[in-house]
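Need tokens for this chain, all 493 residues.
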Amino acid sequence: MAPAPAPAKHESTPLLRDTRVLSLLWQAALVAVLVVVGAWLINNLRANLAASNIPIGWSFLRQSAGFEISEGAAWDPSQSFARAFLVGVGNTLRVVLAGIVLATIVGLVAGIARLSANWLVRTLAGIYVETIRNTPLLVQLFFWYTAVILPLPSLDEGLRLGNFLIISNRGVAMGWPYVTETGGAWLWWLLGALMVSWLVWRWRRSALDKQGRLDSALPVFFGVFLLVAVVGYFVVDATSALPAGVTYELRRGDRGTLFVDADGNAEYDAGVDRPIRRVPVELLGASGASLGLALTEEDGGFRFFAPTPPQEEGDAAASAEEAPPAEEGVEVRYGAPPPVVYSAPVVQGFNVRGGRTFSPEFAALLLGLTLYTGAFISEIVRSGINAVPKGQWEAARAVGLSGGATLRLIVLPQALRVIIPPLTSQYLNLAKNSSLAIAVGYPDLFNISLTIMGQSGATVQLFLVIMATYLSFSLLTSLIMNIYNQRIALVER
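Here are the structure tokens for all 493 residues:
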């Protein structure tokens, strides 16, 4: 029997003919080219900036800004450029978060309305969607600002809804609840209420699933949350007190500051004494008569005004000035406030005191972003509902579910799997479209950054910060939406 032939030896592939090696070499060469080109661009930029006497570093952020910001967080022109940019970020987040919530509601309602069996509802929703979607957002912002908001009546003739709402060409003033100096402890109760209600909701949801019932567990969630929150409110109200050493400084008989006198000199020293915010105060005259009521601001400041006399229809405004009380005050009375106080908007001369006022610029921007994004979301909702098989509708009707219950319990939960991915894109678009705030003069991060550029000359650095900020918004939004999308995704075996 002949011996078996020895196995043939495989010859090794030459190094320069190995596809894996060649792939690594090509990638390394590409990275090297990118590094060289990037280094050249950076060196060229630094040389040009230095030749133009434009700052290269980041020290300009510590310089005093020297300009006013019309709205947003507490701001003083003596503060730094970095603080001004953060105020702009806060203003952007305020309009973006409110826009996301409102646009989602508008889009959901309009999307369902487009599938309505009622011809009028379906047609009106279609006109809204097609008109808004096919008009540039910038044009819409100009329209809402110049043709709708600014032509509104003045404060004296504006639309009023009791002591809750004033709509005029000065913006929208709403009654607003404020957490007072003693309300910090109640916030912990709210956090505890949220945790307890979530645990109860999980337990209730599990019990309903085991019983095969389609009932919602949300009433239990809100009931427990409300119960704990109300109990905590009354407990904090009964046990809270103002800090020791609280006093006030009264100036000109009608204004002053409520604060904790840390240095004991009976005078308010900014940065040393701590202001007491959102505390009701009463001004008393020499005779002990009450001259007015006010609520301290975030900086502890307060100011009293003479009450505006009611005007009969057709009468001219009695006074266009903010008049002080008729008698000079000599004493301020105050006490431990409840955890939350309601501040109603009141017209005083050319301004609104109390409540919370949203500027015409903010109102126009929010209205434009909401309606524009809501139109796109409505089409996403409509397509998601249409993606649910018709057999699901028929099966729901067969077991006796109403139209609303079918939509809430059967259709929308399945449609969410189709809705969420494109909905995320619309949220990102809304955040980026908010940079058009400059068209109506709203001080968002982009608008304020342009002002900082004009004063500091640090154009490159600020554009890098702007891009990084919007990128952070987008990544955070995508992360949250992707987590939610994974939770509702269909799990296959």
